[in-house]
């Protein structure tokens, strides 16, 4: 089973620099709840890391994308707009 995480942030350099500066100024006003959950200003959140590693140990396949990467890869598959961040779980058929 796979789980896809898509942040409410874009992957371009300007967006990454803005997000980094935003985290340093104030984590409490982060526009992306998934960003706040997974990372602090500089490193991955320890509780999140333990959770993520437990999922991997159970055989889950995890994929992390920025909003623009998700739209490029999956827009035609899902065919509608999303509010980001999102988490999509692949279920066995």
What does this 3D model show about the protein?
With 93 residues, the chain is α+β, with helices and mostly antiparallel strands. The protein has one domain. Helix content is 46%, strand content 15%. The protein contains 4 helices and 3 strands. The radius of gyration is 14 Å and the shape is flat. The mean pLDDT is 80.
List the helices and strands and how they pair.
Layout: E1 2-6, H1 13-25, H2 33-38, H3 46-57, E2 61-65, H4 67-78, E3 86-89
Parallel strand pairs: 1-2
Antiparallel strand pairs: 1-3
**What is the helix content?**
40-55%
**What is the assembly state of the chains in this entry?**
single chain
Count helical runs: 4
**Spatial sequence of strands, sheet with the most strands:** 2-1-3
Shape label? flat
Report the β-strand fraction as a percent range.
Answer: 15-25%
Strand and helix order: EHHHEHE
Q: How far apart are the first and last residues' alpha carbons, in Å?
A: 10 Å
Low-confidence stretches: none
Q: Give the domain tally.
A: 1
- List how many beta strands DSSP finds: 3
Largest sheet: 3 strands, mixed
Structural class of the helices, strands and pairings? alpha+beta
- Provide mean pLDDT, rounded: 80
Radius of gyration, in Å, reads: 14 Å
Short structural description:
With 93 residues, the protein is α+β, with helices and mostly antiparallel strands.
Write a concise keyword list for the protein shown above.
single chain; 93 residues; alpha+beta; three-stranded mixed sheet; 4 helices; 3 strands
């Amino acid at each position: 089973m796979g789980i896809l995480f898509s942040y409410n942030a874009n992957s371009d350099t300007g967006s990454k620099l803005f997000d980094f500066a935003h985290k340093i100024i104030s984590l409490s006003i982060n526009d992306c709840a998934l960003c706040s959950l997974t990372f602090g200003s500089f490193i991955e959140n320890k509780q999140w890391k333990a959770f993520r590693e437990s999922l991997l140990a159970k055989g889950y396949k995890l994929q992390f994308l920025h909003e623009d990467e998700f739209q490029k890869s999956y827009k035609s598959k899902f065919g509608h707009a999303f509010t980001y961040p999102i988490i999509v779980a692949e279920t066995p058929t």
